[in-house]
Structure formats: structure tokens, C-alpha cells
Design goal:
This protein is of the alpha/beta class. It is built from eight helices and eleven strands. It is globular, with a radius of gyration of 18 Å. The chain starts with 9 loop residues before the first strand and ends in an 18-residue tail after the last helix. The structure holds adenosine-5'-triphosphate. The site of adenosine-5'-triphosphate (ATP) has 15 residues, from helix 1 and helix 6. Its EC number is 2.7.4.8. It holds the Pfam family Guanylate_kin. One of its GO terms (molecular function) is GMP kinase activity.
Length: 238
């Protein structure tokens, strides 16, 4: 893990070429590649994906929306259909899979989860950037199907030193010793070097800095427009 920069350190990759960017300067030349309004945010559990996205959504309202996944698992107390998940049955899910309605789907502990094309299209039709919080395997599945899906999402990975994850997950107070161990074991795969895969890799040491980097990058690649006065939305993130 690169620890050279006290706040952020990232690898920038556009159009298939990757370059290590020690000084954390956002590339100034927009790439020729045209991205869809789909933001895929990967990174190990506890790295702060939700925290960073929440910060961005607060500062830039009505612009981003989380894609709501389908699942066959039972709703937990307080979870609302259509908000937390589209809760559905195994039969319906299998039917949708056979009709190729998902851009990715997986089974976890006997339950099925999937991101539907319809959900992404719905958000894009509302002029929202669809945000997908998915694991590395899901990212790889989607990337393999770019041609079929006719979608070119922006892939971003949020990272942090492995040792810090344990502190954050413990501090969040949501994990049992067993679930903490599973998340930390999975974190190793989520932090594996994947040269050229992500369009941006950014460390989340300070939430605001990480959010600013992400926003500046989206502006650079044209997924997010600038503010009316021509300034970056990053200036709003405090
Ligand atoms: N930059 C940061 N510095 C310190 N703590 C942070 C930072 N970013 C997030 N946290 C804290 O770390 C914990 C994990 O963050 P968060 O829930 O956003 O992670 P996540 O990547 O979305 O996890 P999951 O994939 O499990 O949903 C939270 O308690 C959050 O407040």
C-alpha cells in the first residue's frame, strides 16, 4: 500500500493505461473514452464507501442515486422494499436471470442478489448518476460484459491500509467477531493490486479529501458537469 501521501494516494487509469500518480493530481486532459452515468464504487467492507458517497450526495444534491439491488433474502427489521432492496422470490429472480435482466448477480449464503439493468436505466432516465456499491467479483463480471450491456461505467476503488479497516469496522459497532473475521478475510482480495482495472484508486484517510478527489475525477471524465459558475463541485465539500 502506498503511504507516500498523508491524505490521498491513487492510481489513475483511463482508456486501459495505468499510471502511478504519487502527487495525487487529478489528470487535466479529459480522455477520449466516453463513460456512462454509472459509478461503480468498490473497496473492502469498512473502508468508508457509504460514508464518502453520503458526503458527496449531501454536497451535490439530486445528482447521484444508489442503485437498489434485487435480493431473495428476507427483509430485516426496518428495511423497506424498493428502498433498501427490491425483495423478491427465488422463482422471480431465476426468471429475470433467464431473461438476462441483470448486469451482475451472485449467491451469498444461499440468497441471491443482483443489479438489474432496469434499475440503472430508471436512475439514468431521472438524470441521476447510478451508484453501485459492489465487490470485486461483481466489478469483474460487469466489465466482461461491457459490449453486451452497452454500458461503460466508471470504476473506482476506495482503499485504506489493512490495519485501519479493523479499527473502522470495530468502531462502527455492527460486527460480531465472526462477521468481522469474514470481512477482514475478504478485504485481502478487495485490496489486491489490479493494474489497469480501475479508472481511479483513492485512499480514504480523510473523508472530505477522498470525496473531493472522486468528484474532481468525475468532472474530468465528463460524468459530472461543473457548477453553473464553471467551478468544481469539489469546492462545496467541507
Ligand atoms: N476517513 C475516515 N476516517 C475515519 N473513519 C472513517 C472514515 N471513513 C469512514 N469511516 C468510518 O468507518 C466505518 C466504516 O465506514 P462505512 O460504513 O462507510 O464503510 P463501507 O465501506 O461502506 O462498509 P460496507 O461495505 O461494510 O458497507 C464507519 O464507522 C465510518 O464512520
Amino acid at each position: 500500500m502506498d503511504q507516500t501521501n498523508p491524505t490521498t494516494s491513487k492510481t489513475v487509469s483511463m482508456g486501459g493505461t495505468a499510471c502511478k500518480n504519487e502527487s495525487a493530481v487529478v489528470p487535466s486532459t479529459p480522455p477520449s473514452e466516453s463513460f456512462s452515468k454509472i459509478l461503480i464504487v468498490a473497496g473492502p467492507s469498512g473502508v468508508g464507501k457509504s460514508t464518502v458517497i453520503k458526503k458527496i450526495m449531501e454536497c451535490i444534491p439530486n445528482t447521484f442515486a444508489f442503485s437498489v439491488s434485487h435480493t431473495t433474502r428476507q427483509p430485516r427489521p426496518g428495511e423497506v422494499d424498493g428502498i433498501n432492496y427490491h425483495f423478491t422470490t427465488k422463482e422471480v429472480m431465476e426468471q429475470l436471470i433467464s431473461e438476462d435482466k441483470f448486469i451482475e448477480q451472485c449467491d451469498v449464503h444461499g440468497n441471491m442478489y443482483g443489479t438489474s439493468k432496469m434499475e440503472i436505466e430508471r436512475l439514468n432516465s431521472e438524470n441521476k448518476i447510478a451508484v453501485l456499491d459492489i465487490d470485486i467479483q461483481g466489478c469483474q463480471k460487469i466489465k466482461k460484459r461491457h459490449d453486451v450491456l452497452q454500458m461503460n461505467p466508471v470504476y473506482i476503488r476506495i482503499k485504506i491500509a489493512y490495519e485501519e479497516l479493523e479499527k473502522r469496522l470495530t468502531g462502527r459497532g455492527t460486527e460480531t467477531p465472526e462477521s468481522l473475521k469474514i470481512r477482514l478475510d475478504n478485504a485481502k482480495a478487495e485490496l489486491e493490486p489490479m493494474p489497469g482495472f480501475f479508472n481511479l484508486e483513492v485512499e480514504n484517510q480523510v473523508v472530505e479529501d477522498c470525496a473531493k478527489e472522486l468528484v474532481s475525477f468525475l468532472e474530468t471524465v465528463g460524468v459530472l458537469g461543473l457548477q453553473e459558475d464553471g467551478s468544481s463541485h469539489a469546492t462545496c465539500i467541507k
